[in-house]
Amino acid sequence: QVQLVESGGGLVQAGGSLRLSCLASGSIFSINVMGWYRQAPGKQREFVARSIDGGSTNYADSVKDRFTISRDNAKNTVYLQMNSLKPEDTAVYYCLATVGGLVYWGQGTQVTVSS
After folding, report:
1. pLDDT tens across 63-101, in order?
2. Under DSSP, is residue 28 helix (H, G, I), strand (E, B) or coil?
3. I want to staple 109 with a disulfide (CB 3.0 to 4.6 A). Which of 9, 55, 60, 81 is the partner?
4. What is the pLDDT of residues 12-41, one digit of tens each?
5. Is it the case that residue 54 has pLDDT exceeding 80?
6. Which of 20, 34, 19, 114 is nearest to 73 (CA)?
7. Any residues with CB less than 8 A from the CB of 96 and at least 6 apart, and which?
8. What residues contact residue 66 under an 8 Å CB cut-off, 6+ apart?
């Protein structure tokens, strides 16, 4: 079992920045992928970024060059640095961790970008 707790969401003006954090606990030694998804009102949950154990990262085209995912294994935490935020980035952001074939989700943190 893995538990994930996100923090760092909030209200920011367009062009601003936020950093989300996701603290993992439980069977963290088994985690291979940690990442972020988001869900805007009335839309499906979509992939944002992921960090694969071993160092590689992937991003959605919509956030590439603006968002950066990083992972601090010593702190069992994954971060999402979000710069140049746009109103269309408004969503609930969910942290994800995979252990083998199992997927764990956090409870989500709201990010609202005003124009």
Report:
1. 999 999 999 888 899 999 999 999 999 999 999 999 888
2. helix
3. 9
4. 999 999 999 999 998 778 888 999 999 999
5. no
6. 34
7. 4, 33, 34, 35, 36, 37, 50, 103, 104, 105, 106
8. 82, 83, 84, 85
